[in-house]
Amino acid sequence: MKKSLVGLALAAALGSTLTAIPAQAATGFAFDQRISGADRYATAVAASKLLYPTDDSATDVVVVNGWATVDGLTASYLAGLKSAPILYTDTNSVPDSTAAELDRLGATDVWIVGGTNRVSQAQQDAWSAAGKTVHRIAGADRYETAAMVATADDQGAPEQVFIASGTATADALAAGPVAWARNYPILLTEKDAVPGSTADALADLGTTDRVVLGSTGSVSDAVYTGVAATQRIGGASRQETAALIAEDAISTENFDSQSVALVGGSDAMAADALAAAPVAGAGGVPLVFTGFDGSLGDGTSTYLSSKKANYVASGDGWVFGGESSVSQATADAATALVQ
């Protein structure tokens, strides 16, 4: 399915396949569309069903380990290339919810991101035996894996490349919807040194528009210079950085200024943010994080307040993950803030 058709399918599905959050504030814009399941696997399945509500309609699916999402940090780009959802598995077994969704989608190609220590060879063999074409992208470490994902396609130089910390992972996750929608690869770096695999990938891609994600606390000025970056998008916290990425997505990538997606901001909620990338990317919806303590946090509160005039009843306020990720009280607080 082409991306334009994915977007149409997504628009048609909105409001009919999501778990509604009762609005507590005045009539109008509300964070009343929650994509969630009983666990991270089921949440990813819920996102996949929203992206592809029709059975047997996806040709490709990207699979990563649900508890080692760092291997899949850059999977949003690969999923975008293939117009695919991202699903999760365990190291040695496929959760029932994921297996059922793979069957429902009718995908012919499975793209594994990560080595056999993350997604076992037995799983790959089982999918192959079931008639699927299985592709595995895996390097010696997260940096090489990201480089291999970035250079897996031969469509020529992408218009832009993101470069983010390989350890402060929230910045790469915040850019996931843009990477999916615009086919911008995400390469990873150490804070004070550029891995050889990253440098080689930049040379292979040949893209000169290079955007560093995160502050100097995540990616140093020396690395910024070393990768010949042309722009830095970074704030004082992951919430501020995500808000700035959202601003940039709206101003330069034609993302929807009337909609926004709210995701848990702690590292433990990274799986929800990665699974959100295809849905948010298909809908052109920017993504922002809650605070570490589960509240909205200063950076996100400031962002939502600044966009208050844009949020009207026709817009969409999304929440990714269950109440353990984004509580009902926080969703209600977000709704109240934009009234």
Structure characterization notes:
- The chain has 14 helices and 13 strands.
- With 339 residues, it is of the alpha/beta class.
- The chain has one domain (19-337).
- The strands form three sheets. Strands 1-2-13-11-12 form a five-stranded mixed beta sheet.
- It is globular and about 55 Å long.
- The model is unreliable at 11-26 (pLDDT under 50).
| Secondary-structure-derived class | alpha/beta
Oligomer description: single chain
What is the typical, i.e. mean, pLDDT?
91
Backbone CA Rg: 19 Å
Distance between the termini: 37 Å
Largest sheet: 5 strands, mixed
Total DSSP E strands: 13
The coarse silhouette is globular
Summed up, what is this model?
The chain contains 14 helices and 13 strands.
Topology summary:
Elements (H helix, E strand, L loop, with lengths): L2 H11 L5 E2 L12 E3 L4 H12 L8 E6 L9 H7 L4 E4 L6 H10 L3 E5 L7 H9 L3 E5 L4 H9 L10 E5 L4 H5 L1 H7 L3 E4 L6 H10 L4 E4 L7 H6 L4 E3 L4 H15 L7 E4 L6 H14 L3 E3 L8 H9 L10 E4 L7 H10 L2
Parallel strand pairs: 2-13, 3-4, 3-5, 5-6, 7-8, 7-9, 9-10, 11-12, 11-13
Antiparallel strand pairs: 1-2
Helix pairs in contact: 2-12, 3-8, 3-12, 6-9, 8-12, 11-13
